[in-house]
Inverse folding.
């Protein structure tokens, strides 16, 4: 982690004469992460905090644990690098897998356990990082495709809170999908 | 854990699911069920339009229609027992279907969503007429909300009732418009009589809206295209390439551009695009092997029908025969031809050879606001 952040800082200094500013993000469990401001601004939430001048020294993120925050930062760094020095908006994220070189990296990035995936979705939503939110939601959607309701319950550990009669009613609504 | 995911995030995930997967996911628990019904499927391009085949049966209430799943390439049967009257399909309005109850010879229109089993009559027109042309214009584009569909329906021409015992019915040279936001019809104004006559005599099939103009093509040879420029209420007439030689001709919209699909007598099926100056440019021909397979034992294109959405064009005949599809393959960024097997049997039972009218629809499992 430390070495990779150093190399990012060096390359940014070579390329830019601004934006070597850093911010510190503090996770819910008290760990601090120093990142380039431009990387942190991949998060619209953080971007607004900085632009409103409320950043001071540290930005507390009470909804994100250190484990998740470090992964989120990893995502933002990777995507910021790929987008180049232009705006921090998510220009690199396209749905066309044949032209997007980040697709493979993204696929590996979301190969995590369900708890982590769940927390990443919530974090991406809270921090307003569109690319990460789209990626994690798509991953979950792909896990749902083609499954029967029972298979979905098993995959996602969902309790069936329907009585057999209620479940039959609900299936009847979309009977066509069960044939 | 997952059953407690906030509704807006769950809805986001659901918007990425094709309708059959969403239908099954929504049956897993109460929270997911509520969420699936409350939030609409996004109309993003990752959700393909589905081909819905409505059997054409005179004066019988339809029992089912048939759906083709373009991803898994299989058929589903969808019950239509919620329809109160026998209907004919007019055309799609996003996720809804515009239909015409057939019990009356005078035009009456209704809308329905076959997935949510919603049905509603539109108000009566200002001027009673038979066999007018009907056209649909979506008011907003991809930002449009499925829950509050905004659209306009234009009715042009037709024959009005006889005014007095001795006088016959006459052509009705007026244009009326329905606005879904106001839920009312208003008379837009007069229209040239010759267009009213042509549209009535040739009772066109679906309309196509492209670049501010609503187009109809006559239903038989000699084909010609009539267009209503919505903003200025002016009419145009266009010639059609090989008008005398086409055995079928349909208008579709492909990537926003008006496209003519036609089958040449003794020849291939071709597609032309309307380009600058109201000229037609040949853009594609159906590969011969698909044409042979499609025609089967038939020697003419005569019974061919066609529908299109911006991203796909389907040529079909009846329920059991196969279809030829020309569709944009998103990952490759180009259009390719596919063969689709017809719906021959269902649940172990043979399906009858029914004549059908097809429509391409964005399925929505969320009930729309249809007052």
């Amino acid at each position: 982690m430390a070495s990779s952040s150093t190399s990012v800082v060096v390359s940014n200094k070579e390329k830019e004469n601004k934006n070597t500013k850093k911010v510190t993000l503090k996770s819910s469990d008290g760990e601090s992460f120093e990142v380039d401001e431009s990387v942190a601004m991949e998060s619209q939430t953080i971007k607004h905090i900085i632009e409103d001048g409320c950043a001071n020294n540290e930005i507390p993120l009470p909804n994100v644990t250190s484990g998740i925050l470090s992964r989120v930062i990893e995502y933002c760094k990777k995507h910021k690098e790929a987008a180049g020095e232009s705006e921090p908006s998510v220009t690199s994220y396209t749905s066309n897998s044949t032209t997007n070189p980040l697709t493979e990296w993204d696929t590996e990035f979301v190969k995590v356990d369900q708890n982590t995936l769940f927390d990443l979705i919530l974090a991406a939503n809270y921090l307003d990082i569109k690319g990460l939110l789209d990626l994690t939601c798509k991953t979950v959607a792909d896990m749902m495709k083609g499954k029967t309701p029972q298979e979905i319950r098993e995959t996602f550990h969902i309790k069936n809170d329907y009585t057999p009669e209620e479940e039959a009613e609900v299936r009847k609504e979309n009977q066509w999908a069960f044939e | 854990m997952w059953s407690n995911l906030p509704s807006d995030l769950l809805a986001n995930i659901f918007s990425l699911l094709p309708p059959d997967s969403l239908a099954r996911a929504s049956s897993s628990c109460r929270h997911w069920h509520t969420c699936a019904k409350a939030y609409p499927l996004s109309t993003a391009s990752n959700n393909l339009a589905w081909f819905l085949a409505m059997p054409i049966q005179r004066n019988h209430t339809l029992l089912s229609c048939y759906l083709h799943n373009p991803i898994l390439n299989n058929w589903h049967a969808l019950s239509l027992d919620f329809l109160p009257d026998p209907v004919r399909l007019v055309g799609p309005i996003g996720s809804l279907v515009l239909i015409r109850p057939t019990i009356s010879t005078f035009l009456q229109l209704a809308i329905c969503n076959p997935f949510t089993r919603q049905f509603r009559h539109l108000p009566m027109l200002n001027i009673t007429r038979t066999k007018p042309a009907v056209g649909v214009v979506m008011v907003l584009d991809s930002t449009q909300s499925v829950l509050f569909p905004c659209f306009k329906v234009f009715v042009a021409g037709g024959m009005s009732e006889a005014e007095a015992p001795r006088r016959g019915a006459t052509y009705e040279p007026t244009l009326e418009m329905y606005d879904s936001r106001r839920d009312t019809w208003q008379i837009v104004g007069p229209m040239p009589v010759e267009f009213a006559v042509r549209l009535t005599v040739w009772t066109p099939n679906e309309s196509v809206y492209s670049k501010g103009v609503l187009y109809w093509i006559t239903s038989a040879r000699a084909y010609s295209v009539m267009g209503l420029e919505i903003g200025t209420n002016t009419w145009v007439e266009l010639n059609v390439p090989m008008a005398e030689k086409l055995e079928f001709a349909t208008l579709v919209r492909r990537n926003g551009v008006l496209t003519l699909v036609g089958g040449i007598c003794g020849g291939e099926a071709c597609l032309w695009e309307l380009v600058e100056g109201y000229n037609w440019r040949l853009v594609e021909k159906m590969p011969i092997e698909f044409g042979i397979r499609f025609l089967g034992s038939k020697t003419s294109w005569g019974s061919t029908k066609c529908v299109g959405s911006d991203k796909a064009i389907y040529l079909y005949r009846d329920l059991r025969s196969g279809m030829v599809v020309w569709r944009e393959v998103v990952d490759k960024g180009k259009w390719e031809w596919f063969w689709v097997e017809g719906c021959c049997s269902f649940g172990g039972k043979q399906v009858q050879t029914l004549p059908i009218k097809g429509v391409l629809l964005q399925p929505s499992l969320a009930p729309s606001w249809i007052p």
Remarks:
- The first strand of chain B starts at residue 50 and ends at 55.
- The mean pLDDT of chain B is 88.
